[in-house]
Amino acid sequence: GIPDYRPIPEYKQIENEENSSYLEIPNFATDISISEQGLRHCFFRQPEHFESRILKTPPASFRWISWIIMSGVPISRPAVYYTNLLTYDLPEEIEEQIQKDLSRTFLTNESNYKEKINSLYRILRAFANIDKEIGYTQGMNFVAFYLLNISNRNEIDVFYLMMSIFSNTFSNKFGMRGFFIKDFPLLHVFT
User: What pTM was estimated for this model as a whole?
Assistant: First the structure.
């Protein structure tokens, strides 16, 4: 079945809090790019050919959007869905685990350390709020961090890509979910 994702919530105004800087999300273009339109057209006309070209490593300029398309991420990726998920509270143990793992993900002397750690926190928090079966599991920080770097810190796209690659319907292709759900069934297959 499909994971227990929350329905798209109504917009909830965020109170002015001292510690709400993690909610300041960079503004990303919400319109579909010309390159995404063209690549989606190619994918739908000849999916096998498109996939074979992607497996041969697409040019860097098309890599991220190719991954988005191949992963089944929809054209419409509403930012409000993502930002609203940030307003929900997480269970304390999940919040603590995310906070612990953030410091394990980066070198503190990296450029833009604070912005990167805030972006990563927001993605992990939103995902934990939407997927109740996984919530947050140690190691997801590295998946999200890698995607964040490849996407040039496009939090919205990373969030939607994580929803796609961690969904049950996507598991037939890559099986990421099995590494992170309770008892880690896919991990046992490989160990």
Answer: 0.74
